[in-house]
Amino acid sequence: MHRPPLFERLLLGLSTALFFLSIATGCQLFTSEAPDIRKHPVHLVIDAGSSGTRFCPFAIQAGTCQLIDPKQDCFSVEGSGGLADLSEAEVFRLMESGFQRLDGLEIQEAVLLGTGGFRKLPSSRQRTQLQIVESALQSQFALARAEIISGEEEARLAYLSVTAARGAKDHTILETGGATVQLAGLGRKPASVPAGLNAMRSLTGPPEACRPETAPYQRRFDDCVLALNDVLLEQDWYEDFFQKVDNSLPVFVLGSSWKSIFAIAGKSSMNLTELKDQAKRICNSSIANVEAEGVPARYAPDSCYLHSYQFLFLWSLHIGEFQQGDGSWPPGAAISDHFRSCSAN
Questions:
Q1: Quick check: 157 and 192 in contact, CB under 8 A?
Q2: Is 244 helix (H, G, I), strand (E, B) or coil?
Q3: Nearest-5° Cα angle at 9, 8 to 12
Q4: How far from 66 is each of 58, 70, 103, CA to CA, in Å?
């Protein structure tokens, strides 16, 4: 039976909304067949982030430091915040909840890596909290340790993650987080700056054009970008970080915020002009029209800021074309020298 165009549009809108819902909840609507992780030795990476905790059990080829499946999923464990901010009882309770989901796995070694949430603590509190977390980890695994990594190390590990997925080193990664932004690439020193999506919002106020409650108008995108750029130019790390990226190498962008941008575009690679055109359309649209693009209601008001922010970073780095990267830094950590069996590689 022939379906009228309106019906087709409704189906398209529903499928798009479901896709965004899967992003927001961390769930997958469809899963591809993956190797049975229970049949392989496992390196467990625990991502102790500022707002949550992810358990990432990666199957490793026996006797090597090679991933069976670089795109293997992590799972999040609910808590009232990141491990850096929890009481000892809450840390043990959250960790035990994660351990229960690892039953049946041959975990060779476990490493917990603390990021922005731990780095912001005073040094004395860092040591105390890290000892609590490590005690919880070592209560379950004989070979286990916890450490705090720098933003630069996050950049290096994210680069290794893409290398493992591609089987090649000739690329650049730009990873956008809530607190920091990471940049790394072939022949480029890994870098990190405290200007993630949330941190940048704090630095800027944010500007009126970027605020979620601002009504759409013709120059909203331009005004938001210019205001954000003025703030970037004031940072003492600006010149060191914003060095031109080699566009002869593929550029992969990482971070959950990028999923929204690529989902609206309906493809996994874009150029700067396409991003600019999409950003202008979003900034000129009402909240209702942004939601009609498939963006959940809770995220729609910030879509103009998100697009403007990401455009500015790419433009400042002279990145012309870019592709959606998978995951983040944990796959790279699983095959890095953070694991004893990989330290000689």
A1: no
A2: coil
A3: 90
A4: 10, 9, 22
Q: How far apart are CA 191 and CA 174, in angstroms?
A: 10
Instruction: Quick: pLDDT tens for 125-149.
Output: 999 999 999 999 999 999 999 999 9
The 10s digit of each residue's pLDDT in 189-204 is 999 999 999 888 888 7
The three-state DSSP-derived secondary structure of 31-43 is CCCCCCHHHCEEE
Q: How far is CA 338 from the centre of its chain?
A: 20
What order do you get walking across the sheet with 321-324 strand by strand?
188-193, 181-185, 172-176, 251-254, 321-324, 269-271
Rounded Cα distance, 184 and 172, in Å? 6
Q: How many helices (H) and strands (E) does the chain have?
A: 13, 11
**What gap in Å lies between CA 26 and CA 34, rounded to an integer?**
18
| DSSP type of residue 260 | H
Q: Where are the alpha helices (DSSP H) in 49-150?
A: 88-100, 116-119, 123-138
Fill in the DSSP letter of residue 49.
Answer: -
Give me the pLDDT at residue 50, please. 78
- Give the CA dihedral 141, 144, 145, 150, nearest 10 degrees: -120
- Global pTM value: 0.82
HSE on the CB side for 215, CA within 13 Å? 0
Higher model confidence: residue 97 or residue 256?
97
Position 117, amino acid: G
DSSP readout, 175-224?
EE-SS-EEEEETTEEEEEES--HHHHHHHH---GGGSTTPPP-TTHHHHH
